[in-house]
Specification:
Blueprint: H1 2-47, H2 52-55, H3 68-72, E1 84-85, E2 87-88, E3 90-93, H4 111-123, E4 127-128, H5 131-139, E5 144-145, E6 148-155, H6 158-171, E7 175-179, H7 194-201, E8 205-209, H8 222-240, E9 246-248, H9 256-265, E10 269-275, E11 278-279, E12 287-291, H10 296-304
Parallel strand pairs: 3-6, 3-12, 4-6, 6-7, 7-8, 9-10, 10-12
Antiparallel strand pairs: 1-5, 2-11
Bound molecules: zinc ion.
Zinc ion binds near residues 155, 250 and 251.
Length: about 300
């Protein structure tokens, strides 16, 4: 019974399948024409609008639900007629957590304060650049959209996964974590696990280098520095299965041997801990970053370039 049913249905299926295939072909054609016309219409409609950067500086800009990934995908390329800049704040975070035992620790930003800072960037239509996008701007001396910002996190704390990643994903932002490679998996001491690192790397928070052991590079020989810079790169590349091209010097300490080693190894950009707002003409091997803390007004000043960066 079962056999008969199969034979019968396979004959019938042959005809049905041919008819069905024809139907699919027609449907695909109609759909393709429809999509193309819609795209042409959308491009025309868009061209008549005022560029968003011209009209959105203050409070009213908060309603921008369609912002997220589509407009962020424009990245370092600038919108036609949009304002551009050669200055780019590279913001430096560490832990996104609050330690009640050590409230004075300025390297910890409580998660609600961090979320408020990211919301402000989103509401004010900032574009977060990946390090590849930053590098493209720097290597081609190409201005980026006026409100561009780079988000970085040093050391690789587990709370970056728990408290920063959900916010970064919520806004479709891009960020970078500079991971101490010997700390991968040291969750007992508060560092990211290999699984968390892989998940973050695929969800907007790219993992880059912060040496193997987080030494003061300026106290090491050239060979010791070379090993710290090359082994951490190789280990992270093996974990992530992609090139790792960027490094932040631990505690911002480095010397001419660090730069020489970084060049020899092939790092594209090396970040320090201070220097205020970076520019597309900043040194690729001493790229400045701006420290940010939990005070929202101070954060805004640092993003806008009106802060006192000596603090
Ligand atoms: Zn560090």
């Amino acid at each position: 019974m079962k056999e008969k049913y199969i034979n019968f249905s396979s004959q019938k299926r042959g005809k049905t399948r041919r008819r069905w295939r024809k139907g699919v072909l027609i449907a695909t054609f109609v759909l393709t024409v429809g999509v193309i016309s819609a795209a042409v219409y959308a491009v025309k409609a868009n061209a008549t609008k005022t560029p968003p950067s011209a009209s959105s500086t203050k409070a009213g800009a908060s309603a921008s639900p369609q912002k997220n990934s589509s407009s962020l995908a424009q990245t370092s390329s600038t919108k036609p007629g949009g304002k551009t800049t050669t200055k780019i704040p590279v913001l430096m975070y560490h832990s996104i957590n609050f330690d009640p035992k050590n409230p004075q620790n300025i390297l910890r930003v409580p998660k609600d304060k961090f979320a408020a800072e990211m919301k402000w960037l989103h509401d004010n239509e900032y574009t977060t650049l990946s390090l590849d996008e930053l590098y493209n701007a720097v290597s081609n001396n190409k201005p980026v959209a006026e409100k561009s910002v780079v988000l970085t996190f040093d050391d690789g704390y587990g709370d970056n996964y728990d408290n920063a990643l959900p916010v970064i994903k919520q806004y479709g932002f891009k960020a970078t974590v500079f991971m101490i490679s010997s700390k991968v998996g040291d969750s007992k001491n508060g560092y990211l696990t290999a699984a968390q690192i892989k998940e973050m790397d695929k969800n907007g928070m790219h993992i880059e280098c912060h040496t193997v052991h987080h030494p003061d590079l300026s106290t090491l020989s050239y060979n010791q520095q070379y090993n710290e810079l090359s082994k951490s790169k190789a280990d992270l590349e093996a974990l992530l299965g992609r090139p790792v091209d960027y490094i932040a010097y631990p505690s911002g300490k480095y010397n001419s041997s660090s730069i020489k080693a970084a060049k020899a190894i092939g790092y594209k950009l090396c970040f320090k801990m201070n220097g205020g707002i970076a520019s597309i003409s900043s040194s690729r091997y001493e790229f400045p970053r701006a420290f940010v803390g939990e005070d929202l007004q101070d954060f805004k000043n640092r993003v806008k370039g009106t802060a006192d960066y000596s603090k």
